[in-house]
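Aim 2, interim progress. The first record below pairs a target sequence with its structure tokens.
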Amino acid sequence: MKSVKAIIILSFLIFFSGKHLAQTDTVKVEKKKTVSTYRRARTASIMSAVLPGAGQVYNKKYWKVPIIYAGLGGFGYLFYVNQERFSYYSKNLKAEYDDDASTINETGYSGTQLQTLKADYRKTRDLGIIGCAVFYALNILDANVDAHLTTFDVSDDLSLQIKPYSNFYSFNNNSGIQNGIAIHLNFK
């Protein structure tokens, strides 16, 4: 009798401990996938922060790199050109109002016109700085989001169809046609 109880208790312990170990292994595998996804996203973000476009190359989205460099280059050029013009008009404005005969205003503009031009070029220069900063931040954000979405399942199990809708109706001696758009969402 004691041996039967011992066998039952022993088999009970073995059964539940084996099931517990199997669940633990499954949790560890799922946790490993999640951790590797976050590490991949972090790596892509750091690479894009150090060298713009490197995170996109890491994610194998090579076509995004020219877009990033075109945006940064365009805003950088906007900054550079407007900084040159800002400096030029600042120098001439200073020459207009100082009492030194050796410095002259080369532009032919009056002092108020030079102040207006200087302010306009400063605004555009600042827009170039802000554009570069925003494009740089979007580069990092894009690398991070793209790395997170590499594990996203894009299968045919979920589909969205938008079709035109037309229906003939007759109600209380009135008839007509209903037209519209039908949206079908399919889960397979």
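The second target in this work package is listed in the same format:
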Amino acid sequence: MTARHVFVVLVASAAFVLAVGCSRHDEAMLGLETDDPTYRQGKQLQKQGRNQEALLAFQRVIEARGDHASPESHFEAGVIYLHHIKDPIAAIYHFRKYREFPPPNSALLAQVRELEATAKREFARTLPTRPEDDQSIRLGTTQEAERLRRENEELRAELATLRGGGASPLNRAVRSSPAREESSRITLQPLQLASPISAPVPSGSTRQETSLQPPVPNTAAATAPTGGPSVAQGTRPVGGRTHTVQQRESLWSIARSYYGTGANNARVQALEDANRDLLPNGAASLRPGMILRIP
């Protein structure tokens, strides 16, 4: 080794010793971190629940003292980021800085490791890589699409019924839930008289008064040929099939379930006429649990 090499090694060693001495001198000049007025201010704000202001105070301590001389401020900042600001990435950063420069005789290293693991779990929950969540979301979306499809078919059927009867289009409210579906349904009501009508008494016979239900316009009966058989209003035909009305069923959906593609306005009207005693107000009288006669 030449004299030049020896000189370089001596200069480097002296610089290292000088740097270490200056660093220790700076630390001694700074004093204890827990005695820093800004650190104490942050702790007081933290006790008062003013976490944002406390975080700013701890960050000022870190800037003034440096990472190696402010482990306590890193710890407090990590706790605020984890539990109050809900920023797990920033919390992980400050917990790691604490573990790099822990204070002498620190009893918080185990707790810091647990807090860092908690922050990692919180961050993992924000990642879009959870198959069970994706599956539940897809299932809920499929069920919602099926419900909307059924409601759309019912709305189209009811609109076709109204147009077939010559009624003007109606503005219907969007049905947001099954509980509001019944209240949002709009149905044309047939014209009714305020009092029942007594049937005329034939001459030469015992006077018998028969109370009849208020007459309801019948499109199918009006178009029937003259002299054809008719069913008296307010009565139900004997025999035939029956159907128990279920929740959210309409006359159109019931007709479609029995007549399939042959269901039309005339079928729906025939179903309403066959059950006039149960449906005096038409489709508005339909309730779950009714037993309807299927013509």
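The chain has a mean pLDDT of 74. This observation will shape the mutagenesis plan for the next reporting period.
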